[in-house]
Amino acid sequence: MSLRQLLLRLPRYLGVSGSPRRLSPSLDTISSVGSWRGQSSRSPAHWNQVVSEAEKIVGYPTSFMSLRCLLSDELSNIAMQVRKLVGTQHPLLTTARGLVYDSRHNLQLRGLVVLLISKAAGPSSMNTSCQKYDMVSGIYSCQRSLAEITELIHTALLVHRGIVNLNELQSSDGPLKDMQFGNKIAILSGDFLLANACNGLALLQNTKVVELLASALMDLVQGVYHENSTSAKENHITEDIGISAWKKQTFLSHGALLAKSCQAAMELAKHDADVQDMAFQYGKHMAMSHKINSDLQPFIKEKTSDSMAFNLNSAPVVLHQEFLGRELWIQQIGEAQEKGRLDYAKVFPYIPMNQEPSLLLTSSGCVGQELCFLYLIPLPILLHVYSSFFRRHYFNPLALSDILFISDLLFFKASKIQVRYNYSNAAVVFTFIYYSPL
Amino acid sequence: MASCRWPWRRCSSWRPAARNPRPGSPSRAGPPGPPSAADAGTQMSYFNLVKSLTSAFPNRYSMSRFHHTTSAACCCSKTRSGEKYTDPFKLGWRDLNGLYEDIRKELLISTAELKEMSEYYFDGKGKAFRPIIVVLMARACNIHHNNSRDVQASQRSIALIAEMIHTASLVHDDVIDDASSRRGKHTVNKIWGEKKAVLAGDLILSAASIALARIGNTAVISILTQVIEDLVRGEFLQLGSKENENERFAHYLEKTFKKTASLIANSCKAVSVLGCPDPVVHEIAYQYGKNVGIAFQLIDDVLDFTSCSDEMGKPTSADLKLGLATGPVLFACQQFPEMNAMIMRRFSVPGDVDRARQYVLQSDGVQQTTYLAQRYCHEAVREISKLRPSPERDALIQLSEIVLTRDK
């Protein structure tokens, strides 16, 4: 039975009804970037198209990469156990559904980026021992394993962060027994994914790569821990963190894994320290801009319902607070608080992003520009690398114009980026230098 | 110093047993009758068991080797007579000074609370059984190889890593089992909640992986990665149960190997790989660790029935309460077939736990399991005796007896 057939059966295991095309609003990243210019016609289908083009570049579809271990006995065991959870309130169910349905939008993104940067960098010119014999579509098989490991680690933590605290259960959560069982299965399946990741890492036979990915796991755990502890007290006033603290936390929870995986992919192809560092920076900024983009979503959606909630630790809010000053911000929050509960609709107008989307990048004060300067910058580099491949391998004018459009948008007032294509070695070697315009 | 670290050894119950060269003597829980008769009795029923097991479980545990252990026992008593006795824990601790400080240095964590959680079990109050075995094995292999008197820094790191992997699995196991106390204090999940405890476990595991990668040996990485996989698979085995009695015992032994012995076996193998290039030595180290590890867990399962909770630092009959049928239960079930139903429903009916406990204490399940553990220990001794004599090798032999006679 093929993997895909197996996956088609999975929804039934998980007891899911409804359309598999369901979209998670925060995840269709790039398409919403388009809407900033008022081009609201950019549907999620566009994003899917971009992804599938990127998948063509790297040789085979990366979707469901992390679920490949479905074929093993243990995971079918897990599927059986998860089935018992159907009807309970345990968050593991949501995670499991997400694994199947949102994988095209979010999950495999990390693996895809690792594969793309592997292909972009190509084989190292200095290294002659590393022959092309195990290369498929310009990517070494070890780099493909690495992409999978990246996905496994990410998914494992996704599962582990969905553990519930048994002493904080409400009566609406259902019986304690169900929650205990859900926790048990969540821990086991997360551990199983981690063990698979460790196994894959060991097979790579490269101690530096093992160290990089292990430290990425450590960063990720710390980041998730911090996120959990801040989101637990959502209704309370958040800590007084500036944007630099925010950057540090977000790097741990979102950037470290991709940054270190990209670096490790270069290490596997025996690239030198400079290229490795570039790949690290690239992965880091890519992940950070992804996070900022999803933080922006509640503020740039057309009309938000009153119950629209946003995280008080998200980038726009933190920047707003820094711009406004702590005391004024507390005052604003205080005005929006009713009986100890925060009314998000009342805070909403305070965040300057809630204006015309087109103003976001130009006139809405510090927030949009700051964000743009901070993180959106490196995204064009990827897009230009993408487009060079499109041009040379596929020449898909539609995808090309799409990508260039987005990339031009992101170049907006941002920085000078020098992209150098090295056509002599069948792949692109890029260097980028950017200056802050401030 | 070591003695104040190990207050539980105050009664030194292993000493008389150690002086007694006859390995088969029932050192605990057995009736005080003539030892030879008791021996023969347990041996008989054990052979019946082995007969049924070997068919279900042909290679993995090589049960048939137990037939030869008498000669191994002789050879170990011979070598022992020539060496002067040292406390294996004292001998091991010479290389482990600052063990917990060093582990805490590996846990480079900025968040104060997360750091506190991760360091919670590295308080110096654990038995450090695994690090002791690892450093003793390191020295024994080094001496065997080139008479080297030193422990390499990388071998000492393995001791740290073994303890870290063990602790990480404890933290996760406690959440899975919803345990509330361990080593005489509250578990991490009871103090900080399940959500944070799981992350603390992941964090310790990642710190261990970083330390492992820094050793810079890909063979060692593969060996210890196997442990992580085995730990998870062992936990999965524990979820399922077998209806057939013979399968059930094989299932139990496999689970015991994966959950407990694999860590000891593979970390022993790792230090031997670092200390000596000879694959024969690697296999000796692995077999020693495997057999001692299984014996250790078998005794642990016995203590769950015979010990009171004050001594263990954790509640007793814990396995029954979790629905797990361990060695003593499986042996008792041969005498009292009515236990089968209880095993199948995982002791879920009220009163099952107490009834099962009574059945086990009435049966010879405890003695049989202890006897099985002895057999594993003799196999361990037989393996380690193939190494060149050294104080560390003899300490490892002695340690296998401590495993059998420990009461905590």
TrEMBL record, chain A:
GO terms for cellular component: cytosol; heterotetrameric polyprenyl diphosphate synthase complex; ubiquinone biosynthesis complex. It comes from the Eukaryota. One of its GO terms (biological process) is cerebellum development. SUPFAM superfamilies: Terpenoid synthases. One of its GO terms (molecular function) is all-trans-nonaprenyl-diphosphate synthase (geranyl-diphosphate specific) activity. Keywords: Transferase. Belongs to the FPP/GGPP synthase family. This is Decaprenyl diphosphate synthase subunit 2.
UniProtKB/TrEMBL annotation, chain B:
Its main location: mitochondrion. It comes from Ailuropoda melanoleuca. It comes from the Eukaryota. SUPFAM superfamilies: Terpenoid synthases. Pathway: Cofactor biosynthesis; ubiquinone biosynthesis. Gene3D superfamilies: Farnesyl Diphosphate Synthase. This is All trans-polyprenyl-diphosphate synthase PDSS1. Heterotetramer composed of 2 PDSS1/DPS1 and 2 PDSS2/DLP1 subunits. One of its GO terms (cellular component) is ubiquinone biosynthesis complex. Belongs to the FPP/GGPP synthase family. It is found in: Mitochondrion. Keywords: Isoprene biosynthesis, Lipid metabolism, Magnesium, Metal-binding, Mitochondrion, Transferase, Ubiquinone biosynthesis. Its cofactor is Mg(2+). The keyword Magnesium applies. Its EC number is 2.5.1.91. GO terms for biological process: isoprenoid biosynthetic process; ubiquinone biosynthetic process. The gene is PDSS1. PANTHER family: ALL TRANS-POLYPRENYL-DIPHOSPHATE SYNTHASE PDSS1, GERANYLGERANYL PYROPHOSPHATE SYNTHASE.
